[in-house]
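Usage

Read records sequentially. Each one opens with the input sequence:
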Amino acid sequence: MKTIGVIPARFSSSRFPGKPLADICGKPMIWWVYQQCLKAPELDEVYVATDDERIEAACHRYGMRVLMTSSSHPTGSDRVAEAAEKTDGDLYINIQGDEPLIDPRMISEVAALFRDGEVCFGTLKTEISDPELIRAASTVKVVTDARGNALYFSRSVIPSNIKDGVLAKTYRHVGIYAYTRQMLLRFHRLPQPELELGEAIEPLRALYNGIPVRVGETRCESIGVDLPEHIEEVVRRLRGGYKKK
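and closes with the structure output:
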């Protein structure tokens, strides 16, 4: 199975314009993400998928494979789908372009879900217990069934745990996706349902259309860069301030 990693990268961002090119220790952030992807043995090829010539130029400057894609894609998964149309792979892994410290083991973990031949769409989750994280709308929560397939994703608190004496574990959705080529191209052709638009969570398009999403559990950690001030934390960890638990 030929596995291709794709890093969707847009220049425009309401909270952090030009984020993929943000300087981290002399290199653009997208370079750090790309280097982490190269450490994952499952990936046969890695591409940056962008709609911006400045990001394309940076990729060429630093020796990264890059694909120019449409500026009209509503989600990263749709951008990865266009990358799939331009490449020859069996499995595609969508790696977030704002996680310069992504642990390559997470790529391995999501790829491993496809050892089950029934899986066509995979992602990850991690247990959380911090009440603030659980309540935060910025934290996407997920609940799964006995087989590990997603029942629902939400920015609301799920499960609600309102019954006294009963406490179900809460899991945060980790935003790495993997898809078979066939499923990804089908997903791209489907219209965005109200659930996806209202929650702003891509895999709800799959669930709405009856496509199962397998969710693996990870204990790996990463840090997302949503705002300029988050760069300081990344630099601190790169300089040795980060100790894995």
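Summary fields computed downstream for this record:
- The first strand starts at residue 3 and ends at 9.
- The chain has a mean pLDDT of 92.
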